[in-house]
Amino acid sequence: MEMNDQLHQRIVKLCEEGDRFAELKQMSEAIASYQRALELVPEPKEKWSAATWIYGTLGDTYFLIKNYEDAIRSLEYALKCPAGNENPFLLLRLGESFCELGEFEKAKAYLYKAYQIEDYKIFFQEDDKYFKLIIELI
């Protein structure tokens, strides 16, 4: 679906603000900016590609602050949005979040899907424990 330019620019501006906060390690402010951006996305949110990247960014931010439950919730929403279920980074972060919570079977499923799309390069900057979890599946 196409969003009008003015609304799109407001969403982008809030996301850029969130990115600046994240770069400064001000994660609660970053999350607040991303959530304000998400509030601007029209309902049903899962129909808009903007929701894919906002939910994904929220999930990544929650992951970085070790809030794995909220990371999973955000990333699962992102997967329901346009092209979300074929985004290897979303799948990677979801698998990593499940791993951190000890849900290894779910973790393996998502990590393996990320691997199938991007090969080993998706794991280059990640902790080796995530790739080791799926080595038997390769």
TrEMBL record:
Pfam families: TPR_12, TPR_6. InterPro entries: TPR-like_helical_dom_sf, TPR_rpt. It comes from the Bacteria. Gene3D superfamilies: Tetratricopeptide repeat domain. This is Tetratricopeptide repeat family protein. It comes from Priestia megaterium (strain ATCC 14581 / DSM 32 / CCUG 1817 / JCM 2506 / NBRC 15308 / NCIMB 9376 / NCTC 10342 / NRRL B-14308 / VKM B-512 / Ford 19).
